[in-house]
Specification:
Layout (H helix, E strand, L loop, with lengths): L8 H21 L9 H5 L3 H11 L22
Length: 79
C-alpha cells in the first residue's frame, strides 16, 4: 500500500484497475475457465475471495502443492 502514497501512485492505481478490467474481460469470455492457484493465495489470505470467484465463474480450482488448503478439499469446485 505504500506505493499508493508515493509520487505516481495515482498512475499505479489506474494501471492496476486497467489490468484487472482486462483480466475480468478475458475470464468472462472463457468457455471453460480454470483457476490454477498456488501459495500466493495462502500468503495473501485470499481464500474467501478465491472461493467467491470460483463459484461466480463456475471454475474448478486445482492447486500447486504450496496452494493446498486454499480451497476446502470437499468444495464442489476443488480439483
Amino acid at each position: 500500500m505504500a506505493a499508493l502514497h508515493c509520487h505516481g501512485g495515482a498512475y499505479l492505481v489506474r494501471r492496476l484497475v486497467s489490468l484487472a478490467a482486462a483480466a475480468a474481460a478475458l475470464i468472462a469470455q472463457s468457455k471453460q475457465p480454470v483457476l490454477y492457484v498456488g501459495g500466493g493465495v495462502a500468503n495473501s489470505e485470499a481464500h474467501a475471495e478465491l472461493l467467491a470467484l470460483a463459484e461466480k465463474i463456475d471454475a474448478p480450482v486445482p492447486t500447486t502443492r504450496m496452494g493446498r488448503g486454499v480451497i476446502p478439499d470437499r468444495a464442489p469446485l476443488a480439483a
